[in-house]
């Protein structure tokens, strides 16, 4: 059985993952409307990944005899002034998510809940990847500046991104 403290923290994280999904879906819809189908595709895959993160936590809570509580998902922004602004917002958001994961990790250690700590290891690595990817796209968009052809080419590249089921779900 999982402790009430850890259960509350994981339920809060499930909500944060769904909020992330909703944020990236809003970004996808924004860039779809702006005629940037490749960037929209990239964010649609982020949307799916975030739903998968929520599902991993839900499965975990169930496996420990806990109770999933699905709360209200707060509103998300709807527009971004440029692709660069959206990826900067993505990085800032992922840094917040990293801090949330680290906080649950610290709580799991304080509560001697080593099963939860172990489960979080995948998320710790995933956050490194999320931040690195966003930083990389920010760097490239800064280089691109207002070069329309270069932005078109990046959009084409991001159109090729495909969704892969995250390993904790694929192996479930
Ligand atoms: Mg996530």
Mind explaining what this structure looks like?
The protein contains six helices and no strands. With 172 residues, the chain is mainly alpha-helical. The protein has a single domain, classed as Ferritin (Up-down Bundle). α2 runs parallel beside α5 and α3 (83-110) packs antiparallel against α4. The protein is elongated. The structure holds magnesium ion. Magnesium ion (MG) binds at residues 17, 20, 50, 53, 97.
Percentage of residues in strands: under 5%
Say which CATH homologous superfamily is assigned: Ferritin, core subunit, four-helix bundle
Structural class: mainly alpha
Rg: 17 Å
Query: What small molecules accompany the polymer chains?
Result: magnesium ion
How does CATH name the architecture?
Up-down Bundle
> Number of DSSP strands?
0
Tell me, rounded to a whole number, the average pLDDT.
97
User: What's the helix-strand series?
Assistant: HHHHHH
* Biggest sheet features: none
Q: Tell me, what is the CATH class?
A: Mainly Alpha
Molecular shape:
elongated
Q: Report the uncertain regions.
A: none
Q: Into how many domains do the coordinates divide?
A: 1
Give me the number of helical elements: 6
What fold name goes in the CATH topology slot? Answer: Ferritin
Share of helical residues:
over 70%
């Amino acid at each position: 059985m999982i402790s009430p403290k850890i259960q509350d923290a994981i339920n809060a994280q499930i909500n944060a993952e769904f909020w992330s999904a909703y944020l990236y879906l809003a970004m996808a819809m924004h860039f779809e409307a702006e005629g940037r189908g490749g960037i929209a595709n990239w964010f649609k895959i982020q949307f799916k990944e975030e739903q998968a993160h929520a599902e991993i936590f839900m499965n975990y809570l169930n496996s420990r005899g806990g109770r999933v509580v699905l709360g209200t998902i707060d509103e998300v922004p709807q527009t971004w002034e440029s692709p660069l602004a959206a990826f900067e917002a993505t990085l800032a958001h992922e840094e917040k998510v990293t801090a949330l994961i680290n906080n649950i990790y610290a709580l799991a250690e304080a509560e001697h809940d080593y099963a939860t700590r172990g489960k979080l290891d995948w998320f710790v690595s995933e956050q490194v990847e999320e931040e690195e990817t966003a930083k990389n796209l920010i760097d490239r968009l800064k280089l691109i500046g207002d070069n329309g052809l270069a932005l078109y080419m990046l959009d084409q590249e991001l159109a090729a991104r495909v969704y892969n089921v995250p390993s904790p779900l694929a192996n479930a």
